[in-house]
């Protein structure tokens, strides 16, 4: 999907712009001089804020992008002979251009799943040949929240994985490129202020790649060491993996804007709400099948192949999976319809009308 996009895009939450409150925060940080590489007042304020949100032990490392966050977080833990258990076709497996392998230098120990979610039983099966010098040693379990299929892990599911990981001497990493969508959907903990912590620190996640860009920031994410145990290594790894911003105040100012005044939650709720609305409008339409549970900001649906190009011309979106044709049946593909903080009710209604009228 190259070039200028004219209609409302359901292609990616990255197709949305920057939230005005984030732009304002960048403008406000654009005053005078500030020390570089994180020794600035904004980064100091952010460090205190993440401790308040995620727990006192949390150490924060602002970075530029999600791939960098994942590779830096994982590299901070792994020795050269250790690997990462993750779902087959997870972002680190298939969408990071081999950065985990080439920049991080570590092996991914992938597990096939139906819905991109790992469970203790499938992870247990992967824990073989421990102590065998001929085999890569599992050291980290990496889960994605929300998953690439728009599904989410419940707090109980995460807790079960972290309990198992810790009992086995493993570390639990969460790729939280869309943690805001998941936390806003789960609404765990007693109050909105606790949502993020309740589904991460409180259920035993050790390292979190905290997503910002898909939630309305401009290329700002963070590695959060929720335990404080990896911080010494992360300081060096962040630089070595080219994720240490010199003008870090502009990354930090954005992350502050997301975490203060609940912007992360407002943006995520808008995106999630629009996905739910879209699902409700197209579920049951002849020829349309909802292919995954709609739990965050994505709707995966099977659509007749012949209507897809016409719809895409008005409302850009991706075909996720070309399904094999079945004789006597209408050929269908799975498409991904992604909502963002910028998606409006009228965008959704227009897309739903277009689907209905084809
Ligand atoms: C699950 C997941 N992790 C990480 C990322 C971050 O990738 P990027 O390096 O493009 O910011 C994405 C973006 O698509 C993603 O979907």
What would you note in describing this structure?
This protein has 358 residues and is of the alpha/beta class. The protein has 2 domains: 18-261, Aspartate Aminotransferase, domain 2 (3-Layer(aba) Sandwich); 265-356, Aspartate Aminotransferase, domain 1. Helices cover 38% and strands 17% of the residues. The chain contains 14 helices and 11 strands. The strands form 2 sheets. Strands 1-7-6-5-4-2-3 form a 7-stranded mixed β-sheet, with helices on both faces. The chain has a 4-stranded antiparallel β-sheet with strand order 8-9-11-10, with helices on one face. Helix 12 packs parallel to helix 14 (345-356). The longest helix is centred in the last third of the chain and has 20 residues, at 263-282. It is globular and about 60 Å long. The protein starts with 19 loop residues before the first helix and ends with a helix. The model has no long low-confidence stretch (mean pLDDT 97). Residues 65-67, 91, 144, 148, 175, 177, 213 line the site of pyridoxal-5'-phosphate.
pLDDT < 50 stretches:
none
How many E-type strands? 11
Annotated CATH architecture of the largest domain: 3-Layer(aba) Sandwich
Strand-residue fraction? 15-25%
Give the helix proportion (percent range).
25-40%
Structural class, please?
alpha/beta
Provide a concise account of the structure shown.
By secondary structure, the chain is an alpha/beta fold. The protein has helices at 20-29, 41-54, 66-75, 91-94, 99-104, 120-126, 155-167, 179-186, 195-198, 231-240, 248-259, 263-282, 308-314, 345-356; strands at residues 59-63, 82-87, 107-111, 137-144, 171-176, 207-210, 221-225, 289-290, 298-304, 318-322, 332-338.
């Amino acid at each position: 999907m190259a070039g200028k996009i004219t209609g409302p895009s359901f292609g990616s939450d990255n197709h949305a712009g920057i939230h005005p409150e984030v732009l304002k925060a960048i403008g406000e940080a654009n005053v005078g001089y500030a020390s570089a590489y994180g020794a600035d007042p904004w980064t100091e304020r952010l460090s205190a804020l993440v401790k308040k949100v995620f727990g006192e032990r949390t150490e924060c490392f602002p970075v530029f992008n999600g791939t960098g966050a994942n590779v830096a977080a994982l590299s901070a833990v792994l020795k050269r002979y250790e690997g990462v258990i993750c779902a087959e076709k997870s972002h680190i497996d298939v969408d990071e251009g081999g950065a985990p392998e080439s920049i991080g230098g570590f092996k991914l120990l992938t597990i096939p799943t139906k819905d991109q979610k790992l469970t203790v039983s499938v992870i247990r099966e992967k824990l073989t040949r421990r102590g065998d010098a001929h085999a890569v040693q599992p050291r980290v379990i990496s889960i994605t929240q929300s998953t690439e299929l728009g599904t989410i892990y419940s707090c109980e599911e995460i807790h079960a994985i972290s309990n198992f990981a810790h009992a086995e001497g493993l570390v639990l990493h969460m790729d939280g490129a869309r943690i805001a969508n998941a936390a806003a959907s789960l609404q765990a903990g007693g109050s909105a202020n606790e949502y993020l912590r309740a589904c991460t620190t409180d259920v035993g996640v050790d390292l979190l790649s905290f997503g910002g860009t898909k939630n309305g920031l401009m290329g700002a994410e963070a590695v959060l060491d929720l335990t404080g145990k990896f911080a010494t290594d992360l300081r060096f790894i962040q630089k070595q993996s080219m994720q240490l911003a010199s003008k870090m105040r502009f990354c930090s100012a954005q992350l502050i804007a997301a975490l203060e005044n609940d912007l992360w939650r407002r943006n995520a709720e808008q995106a999630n709400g629009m996905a739910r609305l879209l699902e409700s409008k197209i579920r049951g339409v002849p020829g349309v099948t909802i292919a995954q549970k709609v739990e965050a900001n994505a709707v995966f649906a099977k659509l007749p192949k012949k209507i897809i190009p016409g719809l895409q011309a008005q409302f850009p979106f991706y075909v996720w999976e070309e399904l094999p044709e079945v004789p006597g049946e209408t050929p269908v593909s799975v498409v991904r319809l992604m909502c963002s903080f910028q998606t409006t009710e009228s965008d959704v209604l227009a897309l739903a009308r277009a689907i209905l009228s084809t």
